[in-house]
Amino acid sequence: MSTDLAQALDLGAIRRRVDAVLAKFLHHPPHAVPAQRGCGGELDRELAAFVLAPGKRIRPLLCVLGWYAAGGADGEEALWHTAASLEVFHAFALIHDDIMDASETRRGRLSAHRAFAARYSHRPDADAFGAHAALLLGDLALIRSDALLHGAGLSARQRDAVLPLVDTMREEVLLGQHMDLVATGRPSGDVEHALAVARYKTAKYTVERPLHVGAALAGAGPEVLALCSAYALPLGEAFQLRDDVLGTFGDPDTTGKPVLEDLRSGKATVLMAVAAQHATPDQKRTLQALVGRPDLDQEGAATVQRILRQTGALATVEEMITTRYEAALSALATDVLDPRVADALRSLAVRAVIRTA
Amino acid sequence: MSTDLAQALDLGAIRRRVDAVLAKFLHHPPHAVPAQRGCGGELDRELAAFVLAPGKRIRPLLCVLGWYAAGGADGEEALWHTAASLEVFHAFALIHDDIMDASETRRGRLSAHRAFAARYSHRPDADAFGAHAALLLGDLALIRSDALLHGAGLSARQRDAVLPLVDTMREEVLLGQHMDLVATGRPSGDVEHALAVARYKTAKYTVERPLHVGAALAGAGPEVLALCSAYALPLGEAFQLRDDVLGTFGDPDTTGKPVLEDLRSGKATVLMAVAAQHATPDQKRTLQALVGRPDLDQEGAATVQRILRQTGALATVEEMITTRYEAALSALATDVLDPRVADALRSLAVRAVIRTA
What we know:
Two copies of one chain form a homodimer. Chain A has 17 helices and two strands. By secondary structure, chain A is an all-alpha fold. A two-stranded antiparallel sheet of chain A has the order 1-2. Chain A is globular, with a radius of gyration of 21 Å. The two termini of chain A are 35 Å apart. Chains A and B meet through helix 5, helix 7, helix 8 and helix 9 of A and helix 5, helix 7, helix 8 and helix 9 of B.
């Protein structure tokens, strides 16, 4: 383990290094088709702008922490390229997710499909065109994340360890998306289903697998991988539950996300499922009438918020967050981990769960 | 080179072997998420049904022929898995393409997005839901093609040779799609742009790169790769030009594709670009009024067909097909290739260009 571990674990420094790899790769993509006649590299420019917009880089961060958790040494290019490839993959997930959710904005800018529609507003089919161009942009992000990973300079041992994990991660987030898509618009009292979506879409995809990928890259054995899971899964669920609470009760100016979006789309959150379980018949009818209405207004949202409080759903979910947060922290209380790595993971956990945006 | 090469080159036998790999992989996908609660493996079932529906398997065939062209020996599992992964990738391309083209049918069945919309017709958002589920299905196909390739048992040497080629192939088809998307609905006289789309979407993606992948897997040097390109690029362009002619003049009962589809969407084919170049001002106005009209009827289509003949566009494109077909065949007249491999490639070329469906 590096003596400069404390420095290596500086989250800001990790982010900057990942950003540098991303910028270099996206501005000069390898194997790029030379002549994009009539399109002038539009998709490449859009992808670079999308990925390089300021972001938390949570998946690359966790990948790097997983590497150090497994005792990885300093300074391997393979680590930085692999970590960066997770961010490019994430761009794919976000761009396609925004199409499905019909989201207007992302990271304070127009979402990809809205940006294309705006740029091609002279076309009679501008909206469909925007969705289709964004579909291709997402596909390009996925393909480029592969190219970045394939060219990361992994040893044969690392490839054998990492590629199946990455494939699994991709599949998990996709099936989580599918479960989400099927459930959205049909709010039910199925807490287990809502939790399973949170597990696949967030806990595994955002936290566990990035840690695993970094750890496997450093040659982690089953003990370290299991420790990563014990930390990641409850933390990831807590993160998603916090997201759901902020999506309904947060301050849009702070979250950057309109409060009405989750409610209008009828997102099948754990919060909503718990409320549906404990609602009186009257409250249930009100929820069914309001949640999933594309024209829900502030007054309707306030009514839903009131029911989420009255049924105890908000308190229950806050308690679920706390339980999971504590489980994640207690997983770190082990001498398998260098205490400085445990500290970094603890600090990430605090920020994931105790936040307003 | 195997003494049983003639047998190894039996195209029907290759197809059956690829189909067997596909069926095994898709019915028992590795790393599959165990509990797709509430969705019951729906995406997996759809993907298996989509890929396993009868098809020409042209890309796997060419991959296997590329392998033998480079002197590959019999019976490597890596070859069959790699060849099959190209077909799974192609499912991704078709599923997303059908969303963008709003195609109703594919291979004589409902297209993926229409099939989902029909199955979920009880949802008020059935059409959007169908498009979004198909978006995810396409994503899954892409991800699974990676998993199949990553698990194909390639040696380190093979991985280094093949993965960058596959990444390039994916990027080329995507950028071809983008060029196509931008040009569609705006028919112009830009023959070069239309030819570039044909090159990226078809010549490189469907013919050249599959040959390259198979050849690289067998350790091909630059000479064999260049020979593959000399055969593939003109053949692939001829194939696409034939497709365009059939799309406008073919018998829908034979092609399985409504003649009006290309015309209604305003597909920017070479055929249309040549016509626009040679049209009188009157003919040009007629083309602009009719091509790209979503409600174009048979009478309008007949008018467009007449202009395509009168301007000489149909004859020009038929001549372009012949020139390219001959160039492809003459590339095979070399002693670099085993004559039996050259025969198989020649037989594929005939079928690609001289066809009615």
